[in-house]
Automatic annotation (TrEMBL):
Residue ranges of coiled coil: none
TM helices/strands, residue ranges: 12-35, 41-70, 91-107, 119-145, 157-174, 180-199, 232-253, 265-284, 296-319, 339-358, 370-389, 395-418
The keyword Cell membrane appears for this protein: yes
Protein name: Polysaccharide biosynthesis protein
Cross-referenced InterPro entries: Poly_Biosynth_Transport
Signal peptide bounds: none
Bilayer topology term: Multi-pass membrane protein
Keywords from the UniProt entry: Cell membrane, Membrane, Transmembrane, Transmembrane helix
Record carries keyword Transmembrane helix: yes
Localisation per UniProt entry: Cell membrane
Length: 428
């Protein structure tokens, strides 16, 4: 597929994803505007726990499916078998994630005195939601690799629209009370269950049936999977923790009000997810399938120039006109307008780092990733020695330092990849 065709596909997917993000964003904005601040703090904390649990199931495995399938993306049994082999490992890792996150949830819950029954129901719903989310990830990955983009868009939109409608019913039709946090999380769970059902129907409509690889194929896939994932285990766990480090620190050392403010400011930056979804749907599968050569290099360079350019424009808008962005989250958080640029900078740097990382892993290039841990830790120690963690501004500064470390390291790795492939080409 040439560049113009790829661009048209990206714009088509982007328009659908934008609509989905708008619908999903409306639900998020309803939550941040209408939930009382103490309940929004609880919601932020529970979402962080869920994100962390799902992140622990990754340890590099989420980046193995595309390179393992490689140029055999048109062979449905092979795609299903490879994805099943990978996600079976992720299912086992979910048990490990539960053992790690539940003690943190228990300590933080008692530290903040969250003991009312709606919070306990919300926590139980969030735990169930983790399992449905992992099932949805599997179906999403299979459909994505097979190229059934229309089905993916349809399922994502219906899931987000259902969640938005249910949350709107909870927050607009019912009086906001102590039970609202439980009702909001239950609505999210119901939408996730619907998405899983729709994914299964989509797989059946495309005649994608369960398939288990033969013993020899499974062993070969496992060997390649372990080879690719091994350098990513430590940095993947570290990255997942870094993604929630601001909420983690505030939940343990700050107040519930600070926790709500971090979550509210981060809610605005989440609107940028549309760009990542377009890249995951259109770009990275194309990079994984592309033959090595000048066309691949040009594709990567154009994609990164466009992505970084978009992120820069968004950051400038937050720096110059923060008051308009703050309108999205309501008057409860107006006092934090001066800190919005820090949240955007942290999010944008981390997004760019993830974009570079996904580019590398889609080609199976996972070497040297372990050292990112030491590089980022050095920047964090420097930041903590200067600013500490006594204020929200200091915590956000730590987030910026963390994201900057990941950004610098991943683009250095991207440069090394370009250099190594150039040397190989000269040698041949």
């Amino acid at each position: 597929m040439n560049f113009k065709a790829r661009l048209r596909q990206a714009l088509a997917v982007g328009s659908v994803e934008s609509l989905g993000v708008v619908v999903g964003g409306l639900a998020g904005l309803l939550i941040v505007n209408l939930l009382p601040k103490d309940q929004y703090a609880q919601y932020t904390f529970l979402i962080t726990c869920m994100t962390w649990m799902l992140g622990i199931t990754d340890v590099g495995l989420a980046h193995c499916c595309l390179p393992l399938v490689g140029q055999r993306a048109s062979e449905t049994p092979w795609v299903v078998g490879v994805c099943y082999q990978v996600f079976r490992k992720r299912g086992w890792l979910l048990c490990l994630g539960t053992l790690i996150v539940v003690p943190y949830w228990w300590v933080t819950t008692h530290q903040h005195g969250w003991s009312d029954w709606p919070y306990w129901i919300a926590s139980a719903c969030m735990l169930v939601l983790v399992f449905f989310s992992l099932s949805a990830f599997y179906s999403n990955t299979v459909l994505l690799i097979l190229g059934h983009i229309a089905t993916l868009n349809r399922v994502n939109f219906y899931g987000l629209a259902t969640r938005a409608l249910l949350i709107a019913a909870v927050l607009l039709l019912l009086p906001v009370a102590s039970y609202s946090i439980a009702a909001v999380v239950a609505a999210t769970l119901a939408a996730s269950m619907l998405s899983v059902v729709l994914y299964r129907r989509g797989l059946a409509a495309h005649e994608v049936r369960p398939h288990v690889l033969a013993k020899a194929e499974a062993a070969a896939v496992d060997a390649a999977m372990y080879r690719m994932a091994k350098p990513l285990v430590l940095p993947a766990l570290f990255f997942q923790f870094q993604g929630v480090i601001t909420v983690f620190i505030v939940s343990l050392f700050g107040t519930a009000s600070m926790l709500a403010e971090v979550g509210a400011l981060g809610r605005i930056a989440m609107l940028l997810i549309v760009f990542d979804r377009v890249a995951a749907t259109v770009l990275f599968p194309a990079i994984a399938r592309a033959a090595d050569g000048p066309r691949l290099v040009l594709m990567v360079l154009r994609a990164h120039a466009a992505y970084v350019g978009i992120m820069l424009m968004v950051f400038l808008s937050a720096l110059l006109w923060p008051q308009y962005w703050m309108l999205l989250i309501g008057p409860h958080y107006k006092g934090q307008q001066s800190l919005l640029w820090m949240v955007f900078l942290s999010t944008l740097l981390l997004n760019c780092a993830q974009f570079a990382f996904m580019t590398l892993t889609s080609r199976g290039h996972t070497r040297h990733q372990t050292f990112v841990v030491f590089f980022v830790l050095a920047l964090q120690v420097l930041c903590l020695s200067v600013f500490g963690v006594r204020s929200l501004q200091a915590v956000l500064a730590l987030g910026v330092a963390t994201s900057l470390g990941h950004f610098l390291y991943q683009y250095a790795m991207l440069g090394i990849w370009f250099s190594e492939r150039e040397k190989r080409n000269l040698a041949t």
